[in-house]
Amino acid sequence: MREAGPDAAPIVVLLHGFPLNSAMWMPQIEALQSEWRVIAPDARGVGSSDLGQGQYTMELLVDDLFAVLDGTSEDRPVVAVGLSMGGYILLRALEREPDRFRGVVLCDTRSAPDGNAGKLARAVGVRRIREEGLAPFAHDFLGAVLAPDTGVRRPGLRQELQRLILENSPVGVSGQLLAMVSRTDTTDFLSRIGVPTLVMVGSADRLTPPAVGREIAGRIPNSVFVEIAGAGHLSSIESPVEFNRVLRKYLERIRPDH
Ligand code: MLT
Predict the structure, then answer these.
(1) Cα(67) to centroid of ligand 1, in Å?
(2) Which residue has the CA at smallest separation from atom 7 of ligand 1?
(3) For 44-63, what is each residue's pLDDT tens digit?
(4) Where do the DSSP E strands lie in 84-185?
(5) 57, 182 in Cβ contact below 8 A?
(6) Would you give the DSSP letter of residue 191?
(7) According to the model, what pLDDT value does residue 38 have?
(8) What share of the chain is helix, strand, coil (3-state, %, to 5)?
(9) Nearest atom in ligand 1 to 108's CA
(10) Is the CA virtual torsion 94, 100, 103, 106 positive or negative?
(11) Would the pTM count as exceeding 0.90?
């Protein structure tokens, strides 16, 4: 887990995407830490979190988030940002215990669970990681999620992300695949989200395209939808300057002491 910023400042929690870890949020931690208390947990199985036996459910990842909040937020409602898998965790956490949150940012994510093709692809992923290790899986994942333009604008980024993924345990990454299969459908819940919500999507996101984010935002009463031009599925990493500009504008609007 990464923590930065003044203890007494309002809290922003950053929930990373699969199969990364809290290190993916470094550009946001650096941008926010002078004014916000920033907490970026590692989801179970990756980074500095517990590996356990590698058998995780989405409910367990939500329990883990609540344990982090119990330990750090002193009952102050937090603003939470979730990218992709982080968004799955956040939507379910919000459904279970809405009073813990005062604002929500959903990035490159969806409320629908995996369909049949998605479930079968997860099973192939688990088998492949067991048989071949993490490197080929990580290579193909990055090929599928990064925008073509990102490779041109940020030539070293793909290798950097490959290294970051390979810091994680193959058992932990497989466990997260299983957790994502076990997630429930939070679509009906979207209309009951009662806090100001920002929905952000990379305009070149092929996994959770802008139409998905626009649909999510359309169901949430107090929401704003923003496309990050040129970014793929990992919008916070691929276009950090624009992502941070949009995020800071939203945070400024809902900051409790303003
Ligand atoms: C992520 O970026 O967290 C994953 O691609 C989400 C998923 O595989 O559903």
Answers:
(1) 23
(2) 85
(3) 999 999 888 889 999 999 99
(4) 101-107
(5) yes
(6) G
(7) 98
(8) 50, 15, 35
(9) 2
(10) negative
(11) yes
